[in-house]
Design brief:
single chain, mainly alpha, Amino acid/polyamine transporter I, disordered C terminus, transmembrane
Length: 495
Amino acid sequence: MSVPPQPPPTPQPAAPGLRTGTLTTADISFFVVSAAAPLTVMAGVAPIAIMLGGIGAPAGYLLAGITLTVFAVGFTTMSRHVGHGGGFYAYITRGLGRPAGMGAALLAMLGYNGMEIGVYGLLGSASQDTALALFGVEIPWLPVSLAGLVLIWYLGYRSIDFGAKVLGVLLVAETGILLLLAGGVLLDGGASGLTFDSFTPPNVAVPGMAAVLACAFAAFTGFESTAIYRREARDPRRTIPRATFIAVAFLGLFYAFIVWTVIQAYGSDKVVQAATDDAGGLFFAAITTYVGAWAADLMHVLIVSSVIASLLAFHNAINRYTLSLTEEGLLPPVLGRIHPRHRSPYLAGAAQTAVGAVVVAGFALAGADPYTQLLLWVNTPGMIGLMALQLLAAAAVLCYFRRIRHREGVWRTVVAPVAAVLLLGAAIALVTANVELFSGAGTATNILLVSLVPAVFVLGLALALRLRRTRPEVYARFAAEPDGETPAAREPAAL
């Protein structure tokens, strides 16, 4: 009895993945610079830097930019050898080993979640200020923050190129209003003529410069996230390094230029007193004087849009970290589902939004202030966590190139990484020594906030050791290179 031939099995459609080859250098730069929220940083933090460090504050932003450029030299060199899309933890795994890599992965989740969720408090606070300034009405902050959560979820749910377009528009608007202010000051010649006293050694080498540098390094937060978009970038071996250097160079030069022009607006002899008297109104008063009251009103509105841009940039970064950790087997597989049409990690975005809603609602129920507590307390460990990731990545670059054969130069693989380790270590020391500037809290609270960073890293080390013993297959494939990478990118991860 013959058996009729069976039809071949119907091939199952492949699961949807991220939209590859979509993001250009400009798109990734928009994500990175938007995360830093230039308008919010300038109008909200730069006056404090001037108040503490005097007219030498612009030089502090340049020094921070130079430090991070040195870091980017080694980081972008290593990006040519690492094909993994998991961001910093993949680099740290290559150079310092899987335990350090898992510690870095958890640290990244703390850092990016802390930077985003805290900013929902700023969204509520900034919206309150804008409504009061423009319409003379007081609005509750919680509904605004919750509405922001829904908006950011939707924008993250849509395709990555849609998000890039939104960020491009918002970033042009917020940088445009600052350039409008600068143009008004330069055309008018400032309060008493244009001078470059801000960059002379006596005004830079002042005791308050340590606090200025702490503020300046915080203003670059998020610039390192270029590597997260590797899988969605066009020609990532070129796009990622270019976007990294563009972002850090733009931020360093732009921040220094804008702070210098505001000093010229008031005059070197009067700006410190003006910042002391009304730090929050320093930029608004300047743009009212040199451009017009309408520009100050527009600046109020654009600060809100600047906050929204920052939230979206961090939200997208968190979603891609979550996706990577799901693929590593460290998070539930359901979080790794990709939307079939938008090609976005939509369930990771929904989970992150839910976490944000819980934290925001918890602070509100406790009667916390949206700015001095929700923003500052949640942002502080996030900021220090991301700086710690940069330090670990710089050390990983140095160790990685000592372990493999390569044709990269000594400047890129030894000198720059060593300098980056020293400079970033000093930057973290400055930030932690001046942590009260960022948290606005007392000693006990500050100790707790700073301690979260090493505690989370140690938790990651413990998780790695446990996985090595109980789930060796998960441990072995952690941060493994995808198929199709070059031999240089296939160097084995450290043990």
